[in-house]
Design brief:
308 residues, mainly alpha, Serine Threonine Protein Phosphatase 5, Tetratricopeptide repeat, 16 helices, Tetratricopeptide repeat protein
Length: 308
């Protein structure tokens, strides 16, 4: 049976088959009920319906796959992992099973396992190679990402995201800009004069921090926008710019800035957590509670890893 590929968009109004003692009809009724509840976000009820299906037909691949998806949406990743591994043993080359396994591991920040599955996807569909580059970047495996980017470019394939990754890798391989302490007795005006003369990154950061503390969001916006042009691989500038946009209630623009800037975070777990926290703030303002909670959890997990 191939129920796992069923389009669930119209399931709310699905007419069930007439009740019957026939096992197959019972199975189909409860299976489609599970799809309906999954479609409206009632994952616990969907699981209840699937448990009935499992009693009727134990070890059904479609049912096990649906179990995995519903547990995933409930963020019960151990159960989701258990069921996806079960179906992969039966159908190890199934593209959709492999793709979902990758999602499960990525959601848990297990990028090594996610990369293993993404490689299998690329073998079947080279068009998803850019996703493998993204995972290499998230896993801080930049040399492997660069090799893949070079191969894609040789094949005439590029994108704005790949170009950002390449820029980030090149910056990573160059001497890092070190922020030196600026004399503590310099006023904000002194800092601005110094910055206008030499456009030093360490001075810019001092200005941005002063403007943020003073809640001068208009100035924060002006200086952070210039910083994005002059220092496009420095993630702190993206954070500062997003804060000026949040003050202006330009939440979608702030999200775009944060999603771009996070790609440039290298070996700094706490800074990466700050990006996710700021994304959570934006999604709360946009009334996207699920996205807000997802980003909050990512930030918490990163801070937990940092404290281990």
């Amino acid at each position: 049976m191939s129920f796992s590929q069923q389009n669930t968009e119209d399931l709310e109004g699905l007419l069930l088959l007439e009740d019957s003692d026939d096992t197959q009809i019972k199975f189909e009724n409860h299976y489609f009920e599970s799809l309906k509840y999954k479609a409206i976000g009632n994952y616990s009820r969907a699981i209840t319906e699937l448990e009935i299906c499992q009693e009727l037909y134990p070890d059904n691949t479609s049912v096990d796959f649906e179990f995995s998806k519903n547990y995933f949406f409930l963020e019960r990743f151990n159960e989701a992992e258990l069921y996806i591994n079960k179906v992969l043993k039966l159908e190890p080359m199934n593209y959709w099973f492999i793709d979902f396994a990758k999602n499960i591991y990525e959601k848990q920040f297990n990028y090594s396992k996610a990369i293993e599955f993404q490689k299998k996807l690329v073998e079947q569909n080279p068009k998803v190679t850019e996703e493998l580059v993204r995972l290499f970047m998230y896993a801080n495996r930049k040399e492997e990402a660069k090799i893949l980017i070079d191969k894609l470019e040789a094949d005439g394939i590029t994108s704005s995201r790949l170009r950002r990754y390449k820029d980030s890798i090149e910056k990573y391989n160059k001497p890092t800009i070190k922020i030196q302490e600026v004399e503590s007795d310099l006023t904000l005006e002194d800092l601005k004069k110094s910055y206008e003369e030499e456009k030093k990154f360490d001075v810019l950061i001092q200005i941005l921090e002063e403007e943020l503390v003073s809640e001068n969001y208009e100035n924060l916006k002006v200086y952070s926008e210039e910083g994005l042009e002059l220092f496009p691989a420095q993630p702190m500038v993206y954070i500062m710019n997003s804060k000026s946009l949040v003050y202006q209630k330009k939440y979608n623009e702030a999200i775009d800035v944060l999603n771009t800037g996070i790609d440039f975070v290298i070996d700094n777990v706490m800074l990466e957590a700050e990006f996710y926290e700021q994304l959570g703030v934006c999604h709360i303002a946009l009334n996207n509670p699920k996205e807000a909670e997802k980003n909050r959890q990512k930030a918490l997990e990163l801070r937990r890893l940092n404290n281990q």
